[in-house]
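hi support,

uploading two proteins for the ticket. first:
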Amino acid sequence: MKIKAIALSVAMVAGIFSANAQECKKTNDVFIGIGGGINSVITNSTDGKAFNSVSPAAQIQVGRYITPVWALRGVVAGPFQTLDEHNGSFQEYGVKSTLYNCKNKLYGELDLDAMLNLTAAFKHGETPAVDLYLFTGPSVNFSSVGTKFTGLVSTDKVLEVKEADGVVARFGATAGIGLGVNITPAFALAVEGRAGINPSIFGDASLNRKAEGN
C-alpha cells in the first residue's frame, strides 16, 4: 500500500494540492507539495479578543514515508502575519495614544514534522481513498527584530516601543491534523490545520512576545 500525505502549514484550516513522486517500496514514498491558505496570530488582550486579522499563507513541503504509518517532512511557510492594535497594546515611540499594530509583516518559517498516518495504522491493503494524519515537531521562524521597549512610559502610563533593526530566528514548536483525499495514485488534495507557539515576530510590542500562538 502506498500512502500519500499532503499538508498545508496554516494557522487554522487551508486547502492544498500536492503531487507525490513515489518509489515501488512501501517504505520509500517521497512526496512534495505546495499549498495556500490563511493564518492568524493568537494572543490575548484586555478586551478579550484572541484572534488577530488573517493574513495570506503559503507553503512548500518535501517529505518521505519511513514506513506506511510514519513519515518525516520539512515545510517552508510564510510569508505574512498581522498583529492588530488590541494585541499590540504598547504605544509606538513618539506617537501619542497610538498602540502598535502591523499588517502583513514579512516572515519565513521552517517546520520539521513527524507524521502519523492514522488511516494506515488501522487499514492495510490498497491505497485508501482518504488519509487522516497527525503531525508535530520543532519550528523556527525568521524575520526582522520588530520592536523593542524603549524604557520610556507615555503620559497615560503605557510602555513605549520602537522599531528595531536586525534579523532574528525564533524557536518553537507546532502540531496539527490533516485530512487528505487521494484523487489518483500520484495526486491528492488535503485540508490541514496547524497550531504553533513561537516568540512573536513583532517583538516586544506583542502581549505574548515570548510565546505567541499562531
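and the second one:
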Amino acid sequence: MLLVDDRAGSRDLVEPLKRLGLPVRRTHNDFGDCHPDLVFEGRGEGGRAVSIAVEHKQLRELVQALRTQRLQGYQMPGMRQFDYTYLFIEGELLYDRHGLLQRRQGRRRLVPLEGHMTVGELLKRIHVLHLRGGLNPWWTVNRADTLQALSALYHVWTDQDLDQHKSHLAMYVAPPLT
C-alpha cells in the first residue's frame, strides 16, 4: 500500500496513481520530524520487509529547499529512519549560457529560476545528497513521467524479493564479425 501524504505537495498524486492500478491511501505521513510524500513497504532480500520513502519536489521547490537548507538539515535527517529513500525531482533542467537555472515563462521565453543557482551547483548538491545522505535522486520532466517512475519504483520493491531481481545480471557475448 502506497501511503501518500495528504498535504499540498503530494495529494494530487493520489488519483493518478490509483488510475495506474496502484494501491493508494491518502494519509498524514508523520514519522517523527519527517513528512515524506510517499511511504510504502517493500520486499528486501529473502522477503524481509523494508521501508521505502519518497520525497517529491518540483525543481523550483528543490532549489528553495536547498537554499534554505530545509532539505539537508530537516527532511533528509528525518528520512534516515527508512531503509531506502528517494528524491523525485520533477521539472525541465534548463539553464542559460552562464549555467544559471531557468524556467519557462510561456512557450519560448526563459527566465531565471528563483534561488539564483547554477546547474553545476544543483547537480553537485544532488550528487552529494546521494553519496553522503543516502537520497537516491530520480529525475522526471513532467507529471506523467513522475507517475510512471513512481509506479516502476513501487513494482520493483513489491513484485518480488530484492534478491530475486536479475536484470542487473548478464553474460555478454560479442556478435560474430560476419
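thanks. also noticed: The chain has five helices and nine strands.
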